[in-house]
Design goal:
Number of helices: 14
CATH architecture: 3-Layer(aba) Sandwich
Strand order of the largest sheet: 5-8-3-11-12-4-13
Number of strands: 13
Number of domains: 1
Radius of gyration: 22 Å
Strand content: 5-15%
Length: 447
């Protein structure tokens, strides 16, 4: 047992090892890390006492695989300079203030086992997520996030979470899913915030189902009892956390009924407010990670070969996939107007990713924050969208600042599988050892 001496009051060992939650009937409210859970060195007391902890007393790592479909507009995305003095491209403006927490990568190829690149949207998506060829029906094997969940997910309430935003109905299983438990076995993303909320907090109480009462009513007595025994800083943190849950609850309840309706591809307009839904889903993800309900998640902002419209960007003349191809509905992707449209769409994608990163950074944990202990990888099935380019991808890596060489743009050779393997073993401590589409590791990624 650690000999670190601290005046901080310790919460009980049982609470720490099981995870701090309030539960009443079917309602479960997890709590974020409190000052009382850590010693003066920022190490979790539970980690000190847990002989099964494999990270030497370190706070548990989390992982998020983040995806948007249809590729990028390279001229507006890829910085022209490499190293720490890289230029902030138009698409990367949303992460400019997070430069010290984000690593920009370009040049990696999206290959499958055997070195062949993915072809078409289905082939590229299977290669990206599983490192295996498209089966003709779905993913060629177990997806990367599930390999990580095999190593990190067994100690949490949810082994992994699959989260989505766009509810469009176009395409087959390869377009609609990014997580795969095995060959042709998709793990569909939960795209409706009220369902994700109910899954995390409980839904059997009829008063909550009808949105007539708050889920916090069921646990308020326990929360008040705990608060009395906490130092002032933890009392404030507990109050802020419960208030944030109430805000989430109100936001979910205020969504209009038609947001649950899936828009068929042939319908004239898609007027759903995806940014509002995306931020709700991101807030729910952050809550699940902070409270230890899960350590692994996939986040599917838009679909592979996605057909969403973007009314909040003023883009309703065509759908996303149309904008990436010259098909009569939209400007050609290689023309100035078409590239500017793709630039604005891509910048929104990065804006939503930046929101998740900043949200995690705002949540204190130990002697740092939740982002310090979470690895996020941003991927898409193609590089340049129009030609279905499978080589020279661009990726973002965020979080785990002490382990990742953030604050720079690296132009690399190798595969996305090499990136996965390097980060899985070098940052998350997953001990994969190998990955289907990996030829080796990329030491430049590590701090």
């Amino acid at each position: 047992m650690s000999q670190v001496i601290t005046k901080r009051p310790r919460l009980s060992r049982r609470m720490l090892l099981k995870g701090l939650t309030f539960s009443h009937a079917s309602v479960v409210v997890g709590l974020p890390p409190l000052v009382s859970m850590f010693n003066a060195a920022g190490t979790a007391y539970a980690a000190e006492r847990n002989p099964e902890n494999k990270q030497g007393g370190a706070i548990a790592k989390r992982f998020v695989l983040w995806f948007n479909g249809n590729g990028i507009a390279e001229r507006y995305w890829i910085p022209s300079r490499t190293g720490p003095d890289y230029d902030i491209s138009p698409c990367l403006l949303p992460v400019a203030k997070l430069k010290d927490d984000v690593l920009i990568l370009s040049g990696l190829d999206n290959t499958v086992m055997g070195g062949k690149t993915g072809t078409g949207h289905e082939g590229a998506m299977s290669a990206l997520m599983t490192g295996m060829p498209y089966s003709g029906r779905g993913g060629g094997g177990r997806s990367f996030d599930q390999l990580i969940a095999d190593k990190l997910g067994d100690k949490s309430r949810f082994r992994s979470l699959q989260i989505g935003v766009s509810q469009e109905s176009f395409g087959g299983s390869m377009q609609k899913n990014m997580s795969w438990s095995g060959l042709n076995r998709p793990l569909p993303p939960e795209e409706l915030p009220h369902r994700l909320f109910d899954r995390l907090f409980g839904a059997r109480d009829q008063g909550w189902i009808n949105r007539k009462r708050s889920i916090l009513d069921a646990v308020q007595q326990d929360a008040n009892l705990l608060s009395k025994g906490l130092p002032k800083e933890d009392q404030q943190r507990l109050d802020e956390h419960l208030s944030s849950i109430r805000d989430l609850e109100r936001s979910v309840a205020s969504l209009p009924p038609n947001y649950m309706k899936v828009t068929a591809p042939e319908e004239e307009f898609d007027l759903k407010d995806w940014p509002r839904v995306a931020k709700l889903q991101s807030d729910l993800l952050a809550n699940a990670l902070a409270t230890g309900q899960t350590r692994v998640a996939s986040y599917m902002l838009t679909k592979c070969q996605g057909l969403a419209r973007f009314p909040w960007l003023g883009l309703t003349a065509a759908r996303h996939h149309d904008y990436t191809h010259k098909d009569g509905k939209a400007p050609g992707e290689n023309g100035e107007e078409g590239q500017r449209i793709l630039r604005d769409i891509n910048r929104w994608h990065v804006e939503e990713f930046a929101y998740v990163v900043a949200k995690l950074k705002s949540i204190p944990e130990g002697d740092g924050n939740l982002l310090d202990n979470t690895l996020l990888i941003y991927v898409h099935e193609h590089a340049e969208a129009g030609p279905h380019k499978a080589i020279g991808h661009v990726n973002l890596v965020a979080g785990c600042r002490k382990q990742v060489a953030h604050g720079q743009h690296l132009r690399l050779t190798g595969t996305i599988g090499d990136m996965y393997l390097t980060l899985a073993d070098g940052v998350l401590g997953a001990g994969l050892g190998r990955y289907p589409a990996a030829n080796g590791k990329i030491p430049q990624l590590l701090a």
